Give the backbone structure.
Amino acid sequence: MKTLCVSLLLAICSTGASAQDVTARLAGRVSPDVAALVHQLAASAAARGLPIDPLIQKAIEGSAKGVPADRVTAALRVLVGQLDVAAAALRDAAPAQPDTDAIAAGAFALNAGLSGRNVTDLAAASRPSNSMAATLRVASTLAAMGVPPAQTVELVTQVIEAGGSTTDVLALPTQVMAGVSEGRGRGVTPAQAAAGLARAAAARANAPGQQRPKHPHP
Amino acid sequence: MTMSDFHPHVKQLLDGELTLADLPPELRAEGEEALHLLAAVDREPVTFPGLDARVLARLRARRDPRGFWRRLRLRPWTLLPAFAAGAALVLLLSRPMASPPATTVTVRFVLFAPDAQQVALAGTFNQWDTAATPLLRTGTPGVWAATLTLPAGQHQYAFVVDGARWIADPAAPAVDDGFGRRNSVLSL
């Protein structure tokens, strides 16, 4: 009973603290209507274990860009939907409640063009030594660069399976960009550069005992 | 008779300044008595009833390790898991670990905007504040730049030209911002 009371008290205090944090961050940055909606959505999202920072950021971004309140509201609702889908996709990969960083990264991946299934596959490919959030962020960056979703998943998965660290995964967008720059004369696309990297990673994964270069080139 | 009651010459005898023969005949008896008393005091052992027994009992208690564990209400082997966990922690901490990714990264943002009067950078890293991060003119005409140290992670941003025009970075990938425009993406 004593433990229950303490837990309840802590939960109430933390909810109060996060509500104060939301108020402080939105103060003077968004209209009262948008602020009220963010409060409502954030409370509901937090109760479901979703991150609230992306909601605050999106509201501030919309107001900074001079976007009408109704469009900001619509964008916030879309974002909440993406966070929910990302959380579900991550739970499909691992039964434990995903951390808020990974959910935010998953929602951004969805916004960048990946599907819920892609997010699940990437999360399943992540190993304890790899940051799931970093893996998803890299995948969304690759998608934003124009690498098709299926190819993005294949490249990231191959690098992880070849024993690549989080640092190796984080280097992938730069490597794809370098591949595009090097092959500019031949009209190499981000998809082709990514395919070259994936082949190299697969070769490393299938060559046991072979010394793995830290940063492979296509 | 106590020591303080002796004649001054007898006291000199006791201090070794005089001998018994040096004393006047009428003080020799007193001198002999004083010497006898002094000898009695020197030779008699000082004893405190029961002290030896108490000291020895204390020493025995200190030497007995079972007494220590009894006072702790523990058995020595109950601490073995704690010692094992401590040893494992020391081994884990002393193992060479893979270097973690950098926590901050320095990035240079560049925009070619020859007609701009002012250019700023707004994004998730500065709460989309259009006044927080102005770009400066470089030596090359029309080229604006800013160098920032950002925390590792993913950032979205855009250039703000003349306080009103939002432009995605032509040199970076971009995504839909949800408002009909594009945000540039930076993964660090």
